[in-house]
C-alpha cells in the first residue's frame, strides 16, 4: 500500500519560514522536491514523529568536523571502551563487526573495534561507494564546481530498464500537491540528479542506485561531453560488448575507492543493485568491513572524499530528514543529527521449530549500519561515528541494532559527562567561606 502524509493546505499556501532538507532548507540549492514539502509541514511532521528534532539542522550547520585536521588518524583501540562494547554482545559477539570513533575532542579521539576486519556483503551500505564514485566521476569530467552543481540541479534523468525491479518506495511531490506520495520508481519517471541521489541515499532505492551507477559509467566514457541524451546513453549500453562494459564499470565504480585512500579489497560495490543492471553489466562480488567503512567516514569528515565540496555533499545526502529506521530509530537519538546508511540481506532454510521472519534469517542474517551522530548532552557537544555489521542468526537484527544504538549513546556520553556533585558525608566539615 502506498504510504503518504498530508501537507496542511494552509502551510502550502502561506509558507512556514524559509522554503527548503537534505537539510530541510536545501530545496532551492538542490531542487529535491520532498525537502520543500517536509519543510512546509515540519510542525505536524514533528508532532507526528515523522521528523525528529535532530533533523532540523540547516545547510550551513551540516559541515565537516575534521576538515581542519588533515593529518587526523584513527588511534589505537581504547581498552575501556572496547571492553564495554564487547560486554554488550554476550554470546553473539562472534556475529558482530564493530568500529566506534569518538571525535567529540578531535585532539583526544577515542576508538574501539570488535572484529573490525570481519567481511560481509554490505547490502545497501554499498550505496556510499556509489555516491563516492559518482562525485569522483563528476569531478573528473567537470573540475569546475559551478558546472558540477549546474549538472546536478539541471540534468533531468528519466528512469529506464536499469530500474528493474525494485520494491523500495521513494517520495513524489510537486508544489500544489496536498500529499507526498511514496511508491516505487516507474519507467519514465523523471527527476534531476540531486533527486536521484536523494532517492538512493535517503529512501535507499535500488532502482535509483542502479540508474546512478549507469550514469557513473557514462561519466567515465564520455567525460566532459556528459551529460548525454537518452538516445546516446541507450546506444552506448546496447552496442558496447559486455566485457568492455565490465571493464568500464570496474574503472568507474571500483577505482575511485583506491584513488581516495580506501582498500577496494575491503570495501566495494561490485555490481548493480537490480537484476536488470547485473544482466546488462556483469560485475563482481560486494564486500565491506567495519574498519574500512570507518575510514570512509573519517575521510568524509576530513573533506578528502574527492574534495571538500564533494565530501560535504555526500554528508548532506546522508543526513536523515525523513523516517528513521533500524539503528537510527532509537529514541536515544531523537535529538541528535544522524548521518546514516543501512542495509540488510537475510535468507532462511527449513528448520524444525523455527519460523522465518523479516531480518531474522537462519541461513544468512546480515544487517549493516553506518552512522555519524552529532548531539548535545547536558550542554556539552557529543560527536562520534559508528559502523555496526552483524550476522546473528534467528534474531531480529533491526531490533538488535536499535538497542545497541542506545547503549553506544550512553557509553560515549559517559566519557564526557561532568562528575555528579556529591553531598558531604557524615563527619565531613563544611565552611561558610568566612
Total E-strand runs: 10
> What's the N-to-C terminus distance?
74 Å
Helicity range of the residues? Answer: 25-40%
Uncertain spans: 1-21, 427-434
**How are strands sequenced across the largest beta sheet?**
3-2-10-9-8
Rg estimate, integer Å = 23 Å
Shape: globular
Largest sheet: 5 strands, antiparallel
Which structural class do the helices and strands define? alpha+beta
Residue share in β-strands: 15-25%
Describe it for me?
With 434 residues, the chain is an alpha+beta fold. Helix content is 38%, strand content 15%.
Search tags:
single chain, 434 residues, alpha+beta, five-stranded antiparallel beta sheet, three-stranded antiparallel beta sheet, 15 helices, 10 strands, 38% helix, globular
Overview in brief:
The protein has 434 residues and is α+β, with helices and mostly antiparallel strands. Helices cover 38% and strands 15% of the residues. It has helices spanning 9-14, 27-30, 33-40, 42-48, 79-89, 127-141, 145-154, 193-201, 206-222, 230-239, 242-259, 275-280, 290-302, 308-318, 397-414, and strands at residues 3-6, 96-102, 110-114, 156-158, 170-172, 179-183, 190-192, 337-347, 364-377, 380-391.
SSE layout:
Layout: E1 3-6, H1 9-14, H2 27-30, H3 33-40, H4 42-48, H5 79-89, E2 96-102, E3 110-114, H6 127-141, H7 145-154, E4 156-158, E5 170-172, E6 179-183, E7 190-192, H8 193-201, H9 206-222, H10 230-239, H11 242-259, H12 275-280, H13 290-302, H14 308-318, E8 337-347, E9 364-377, E10 380-391, H15 397-414
Antiparallel strand pairs: 1-6, 2-3, 2-10, 4-7, 5-6, 8-9, 9-10
Amino acid at each position: 500500500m502506498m504510504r503518504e502524509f498530508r501537507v496542511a493546505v494552509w502551510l502550502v499556501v502561506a509558507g512556514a519560514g524559509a522554503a527548503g532538507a537534505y537539510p530541510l532548507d536545501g530545496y532551492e540549492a538542490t531542487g529535491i522536491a520532498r525537502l520543500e514539502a517536509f519543510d512546509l509541514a515540519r510542525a505536524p511532521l514533528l508532532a507526528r514523529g515523522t521528523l525528529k528534532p535532530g533533523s532540523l539542522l540547516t545547510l550551513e550547520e551540516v559541515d565537516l568536523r575534521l576538515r581542519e585536521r588533515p593529518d587526523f588518524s584513527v588511534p589505537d583501540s581504547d581498552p575501556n571502551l572496547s571492553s564495554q562494547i564487547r560486554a554488550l554482545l554476550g554470546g553473539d559477539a562472534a556475529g558482530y563487526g564493530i568500529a566506534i570513533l569518538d571525535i567529540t575532542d578531535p585532539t583526544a579521539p577515542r576508538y574501539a573495534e570488535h572484529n573490525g576486519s570481519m567481511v560481509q556483503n554490505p547490502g545497501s551500505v554499498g550505496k556510499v561507494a556509489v555516491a563516492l564514485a559518482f562525485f569522483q566521476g563528476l569531478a573528473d569530467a567537470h573540475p569546475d564546481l559551478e558546472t558540477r552543481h549546474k549538472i546536478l540541479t539541471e540534468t533531468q534523468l528519466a528512469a529506464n530498464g536499469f530500474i528493474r525491479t525494485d520494491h523500495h518506495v521513494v517520495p513524489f511531490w510537486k508544489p500544489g500537491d496536498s500529499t507526498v506520495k511514496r511508491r516505487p520508481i516507474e519507467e519514465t519517471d523523471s527527476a534531476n540528479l540531486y533527486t536521484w541521489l536523494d532517492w538512493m541515499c535517503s529512501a535507499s532505492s535500488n532502482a535509483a542506485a542502479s540508474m546512478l551507477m549507469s550514469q557513473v559509467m557514462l561519466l567515465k566514457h564520455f567525460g566532459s561531453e556528459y551529460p548525454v541524451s537518452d538516445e546516446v546513453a541507450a546506444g552506448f549500453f546496447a552496442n558496447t560488448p559486455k566485457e568492455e562494459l565490465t571493464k568500464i564499470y570496474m574503472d568507474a565504480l571500483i577505482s575511485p575507492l583506491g584513488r581516495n585512500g580506501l582498500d577496494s579489497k575491503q570495501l566495494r560495490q561490485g555490481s548493480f543493485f537490480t537484476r536488470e543492471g547485473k544482466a546488462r553489466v556483469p560485475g563482481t562480488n560486494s564486500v565491506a568491513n567495519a574498519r574500512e567503512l570507518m575510514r570512509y567516514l573519517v575521510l568524509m569528515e576530513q573533506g578528502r572524499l574527492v574534495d571538500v565540496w564533494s565530501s560535504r555533499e555526500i554528508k548532506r545526502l546522508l543526513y536523515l530528514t525523513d523516517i528513521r529506521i533500524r539503528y537510527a530509530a532509537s529514541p536515544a537519538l531523537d535529538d541528535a543529527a544522524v548521518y546514516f546508511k543501512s542495509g540488510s540481506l537475510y535468507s532462511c532454510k527449513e528448520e524444525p521449530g523455527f519460523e522465518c521472519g523479516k531480518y531474522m534469517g537462519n541461513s544468512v542474517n546480515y544487517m549493516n549500519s553506518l552512522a555519524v551522530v552529532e548531539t548535545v548532552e547536558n550542554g556539552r557537544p557529543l560527536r562520534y561515528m559508528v559502523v555496526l555489521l552483524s550476522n546473528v542468526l534467528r534474531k531480529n537484527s533491526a531490533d538488535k541494532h536499535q538497542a545497541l544504538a542506545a547503549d553506544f549513546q550512553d557509553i560515549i556520553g559517559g566519557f564526557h559527562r561532568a562528575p555528579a556533585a556529591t553531598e558531604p558525608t557524615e563527619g565531613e566539615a563544611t565552611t561558610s567561606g568566612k
